[in-house]
Amino acid sequence: MKCDKKNMLLYAVTDRAWTKEKSLYEQVEEALKGGITCLQLREKNLSKEEILEEALKIGPLCKKYGVPFIINDDVEIALKCGADGVHVGQDDMEAGKVRAIAGDNLIIGVSAHSVEEALKAEAAGADYLGVGAMFSTSTKTNVRPMTKEILSDICRSVSIPVVAIGGIGKDNIGSLNGSGANGVAVVSAIFAAKDIEAECKILRKLSEEMVNS
Question: Is residue 42 among the annotated active site residues?
């Protein structure tokens, strides 16, 4: 299954640490109303059963808004809940193995931190790349920020869509202008916002400006 680069424009990654008085479902719906173009369910502190339960609720919501629904790391859950895709990191299942299990039924995203990793992932069957971390981020404390030059090199080296990730918010998206990235993946800039819908509208506009720069 191919991934449309337009789906990378504003790629939201969940983090229930920010739910507070709202449920994750409610937060996701606000983000969808605000114009996110892809949603990844990434919940590191839930059991497989809890993730599947959440996925079975949120997946149909994404379908209602016509937005691809991606599961983090777990191809089994992705297939069980009827997700559109699965995203794997360098320490997770290799893209070729994911493709062997899922066939052409899933979009496969792979995290990449170098041109070498990017080319390897593309050759193994990845449909898109998540590249970063671009800035320091509370969700990945052990990752050194990547330079814009490396991001640009990766974008030039592959023919599949690239989404920049890691510490990205409305104050720094502009520094990625001209990088060649097809969009940004955002966690706290969306889910920690008081008005998620309004914040997503701002982030989407800024991402469009970045992509077209």
Answer: yes
